[in-house]
């Protein structure tokens, strides 16, 4: 249990060394999802 004290306080395990890349992927996924939802809403209301 002593090794658990050295783990950084993040919600998910293994996000300390690749946090910028994972955050960029999450932001990219959310932007892609938002664009897709906006396109669906536009096609639903415009058609």
Shape field: rod-shaped
Helix amount: 55-70%
Secondary structure: number of strands: 0
- What's the number of helices? 1
pLDDT < 50 runs, ≥5 residues: none
Beta-strand residue percentage: under 5%
Quick check: average pLDDT? Answer: 78
Element order, helices and strands?
Answer: H
Which secondary-structure class do the elements indicate? mainly alpha
Largest sheet: none
Key features of this structure:
47 residues; mainly alpha; single chain; 60% helix
Describe the structure.
The chain has 47 residues and is mainly α. It has a domain at 21-47. 60% of the residues lie in helices and 0% in strands. It has one helix spanning 19-46. The radius of gyration is 18 Å and the shape is rod-shaped. The mean pLDDT is 78.
Topology of this protein?
Layout: H1 19-46
Outline:
Keywords: Membrane, Transmembrane, Transmembrane helix. This protein is 60% helix and 0% strand.
């Amino acid at each position: 249990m002593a090794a658990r004290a050295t783990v950084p306080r993040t919600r998910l395990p293994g996000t300390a060394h690749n946090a910028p890349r994972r955050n960029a992927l999450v932001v990219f996924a959310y932007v892609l999802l938002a664009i897709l939802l906006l396109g669906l809403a536009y096609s639903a209301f415009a058609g």
